[in-house]
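Let's practice the habit of predicting before peeking. Look at the sequence and jot down your guess about where helices and strands might fall. Then scroll down.
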Amino acid sequence: MTRKFCLFAALLLAATLLRAQDLRLLVGTFTGDGTASGAWLWRFDPATGASAELDFAAAANPAFIIPSADRTRAWSVCEFNDGRQGAYAYTLGPDRLELINYQPATPDGKGSGNPCNILYFNGFIFTADYFGGTVTLYPVQADGSLGPMRRNFYFGPESRMHCCRLSPDGRWIFASDLGCDAIRRFPVLPSGEIPVGEPDIAYRATPGSGPRHFVFSADGRFCYLLGELGDTLTVLRYEDGTLTPVQELKAYRGRGKGSADVHLSPDGRFLYTSHRLRGEGIAIFAVDPQDGTVRRAGFQPTGRHPRNFVLSPDGRWLLCACRDDNAIEVYARDVATGALTLKKDRTIRVNHPVCLQLF
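Done guessing? Here is the structure:
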């Protein structure tokens, strides 16, 4: 009897440990046509690529969503340009996603149109606002909820802000401006009402390239910038707040003018970019670890409108949000070659997925 009990306990412990290795997947969606209805939390098993739905939080156009560092909170944009725009806060647990509150972009609900990207830094949420041409700041309260908008940086009617990221040295917040073909930078302040100062321009991109998303290498030496309209990939050297171009090439040959997302593999050896509207798929690049330059290593066709994608922490999986197929495609990844293989039986069905966070 004791032996049976010990065996049961051992099996229970093993099952618990295996479950603890599971990842969580946050999914942001577009809800405008009424077929999608909010943000989702799924379980993802990195051993098999299988997934299971956990929870759902009703929200309108939570098109970009992020978890907190301690995985107890989450925040998303509310992407509209008709007075409903703003941001959401959520409680996040191992199997729970629950809306805490919503904050409009301004007290009267106008301005900062189409927030499409979100960043947490030093007690504030930053949203990059596409049609607003702005970066908007909301304070995060002790319970994770969002306070009223604290500051709105406006860059003019031509600006189309798209992505905010902290610099590798923690001294700057960089923001891509698709409309003005630029990357702007905000100096991080050690104290004050808000954590950043007045911005300037850190980098002037190729005219017409339309800077969208960018990512820094793990060692902080390089930045990889994807141009949405020019379908360009630009390698930039980063040092002390300065971005210096090293290489620029066409990211793919589809000429869709809809290049979307960019990520490095966890080991930094490969880089991936997603492309929509024509010749849709994910381009694969090998990265030179010395000078940061890239060379083409393949192209993986995907479902329709591959907007956002994410790689698992172990580098074995890539998940791609295919908005117009109402699907999150799951790809096994060859860590040696960077190649992707679609696992059709692992496809996750969600209406209009547009943002993925795996953690």
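How did you do? Residues 24-358 form a domain with the Methylamine Dehydrogenase; Chain H fold (CATH 2.130.10.10).
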